[in-house]
Each structure stands twice: as structure tokens, then as C-alpha cells.
Amino acid sequence: MIFPDPEWRVTPGLTPYDAALTEMEARAAAVSTGAEGELAWLLEHPPVYTAGTSADPRELIDPRFPVVATGRGGKYTYHGPGQRIGYLVLDLNRRGRDVRCYVHALEGWVIAALGDLGIEAFRAEGRVGIWTIDRSGREAKVGAIGVRVKRWVTMHGFSVNVAPDLSHFGGIVPCGLPTFPVTSLEALGASTDMETFDAALAFRFPRFLETLSGARENES
């Protein structure tokens, strides 16, 4: 079955985290009842630390920015200017009720988009997120994944460090992994043009949706 494409929205400037969360939750509720269509939303936030459902207070080292508890999975993460946030409100009732497949497809989408920009990114066994090799030859995290699924409608999504102030991650143990550094496209010497990255995401988005459709067919 063919479904309408999700709305593709890119919001310029900085969107306060609380305002985005409220809008995303309202949209998810509307999607679950069929009142509104799905949404893929790209945006940036002012500096904020967010706590996932498994956040450990000991990993909040220096709360120099607002700290917001959220219903997504995962631990502490940082959002701020220069970081591309992708929020997805998708109906897995229609696209396949398989959360693991959804997260895997989400990772694959971001990895493919980064590959189009010359960044060799990958998944790491036992570590959630998007990884690459930094200039010192170490595995470093370039993107985070955190999702919530309610009534089989997705919320939250991914963040990719395009050109944020990486020192801002010092206030937390990012995603509870103290032994691995955080990097960015800027630190890797890649393009830091947000529009270029958005275009790569848009180009790879149909394939991401096809992957979910494949999960639906397998479910049947």
C-alpha cells in the first residue's frame, strides 16, 4: 500500500526545546488518530541538555545550560547551535511495528547522508549512535539517536554534529560513554553548510521510507 509522503519541514533559526517538544507531541497525537499526516522536521535548538529515560544524574557534570527531562530513550545528550536535529513523527502502524528495524533504518539513513558528504560513518556494536574515525584515529561519536514510540507513532529521532561548540558536551557524559570522544563535521574537515547536509538527508529519505515499507511487508 502507498501512503502519502510525510511533510518535510526545515525550520530556520533556533527553536526552543520545550516548544519543539510540545509541537512534536501534539503532532504525534494527531497522527495516531489520523487527524494529521506524518512529519520529518529538521531544526536547531539553543544550548540545552536533555535527559533520556535511562539518564544517570552522576553523568550530569556541569549543568551550565537548561536540563530537560524527556521521554525518549537513552541518557544525557546536548543540543545546540550548529547541530542538525531531525524529529520524525511516523506511523509504524502503517510502516511496520518493529522498533528495532526503525532505529536501524534511522541510523542507516543518517550514515548514508554523511557518506554522500565524504564522511565514513558506521554503527558500533553495543553503542547506540552514529560513529566515525576522528583525525587522531579514534572512534568518535558524530551523531546521536534517541527515539520514543507511543501508540506505534514515533517521536524524537537523531542529532548530527555539523559545527557545534564541542566544548558544550563537557557538561555531561555524552550518552553515558566517557571513554569515547565527540566530533563534528567541522572537526573532521568536512562541509559545515547545513543546507548541504539537509539536501543529503532529503536525497536519502525515500530510501529510508522504503526500508520501513520492507519491514511492513515482512511483518505481513
Descriptive report:
The chain is of the alpha+beta class and 220 residues long. Helices cover 30% and strands 29% of the residues. The chain has four helices and ten strands. Strands 1-2-6-10-9-8-7 form a seven-stranded mixed sheet, sandwiched between helices. It has a three-stranded mixed sheet with strand order 4-3-5, with no helix packed on it. Strand 7 and strand 8 form a beta hairpin. The mean pLDDT is 92.
What share of residues is helical? 25-40%
Strand order of the largest sheet: 1-2-6-10-9-8-7
Distance N to C terminus = 12 Å
Number of helices: 4
What's the alpha carbon Rg, rounded to whole Å? 17 Å
Q: Quick one: how many beta strands?
A: 10
**Binned strand content:** 25-35%
Class by helix and strand content?
alpha+beta
Shape: globular
Give the averaged pLDDT, no decimals: 92
Largest sheet: 7 strands, mixed
The low-confidence runs, each spanning 5 or more residues with pLDDT under 50, are: none
How do the SSEs run, as a string of H and E? EHEEEEEHHEEEEH
Q: Which secondary structure elements does this structure contain, and how are they paired or packed?
A:
Elements: E1 7-14, H1 17-33, E2 39-44, E3 48-51, E4 67-69, E5 76-79, E6 83-89, H2 92-95, H3 99-116, E7 122-124, E8 127-133, E9 139-150, E10 153-161, H4 194-219
Parallel strand pairs: 1-2, 3-4
Antiparallel strand pairs: 2-6, 3-5, 6-10, 7-8, 8-9, 9-10
Helix pairs in contact: 3-4
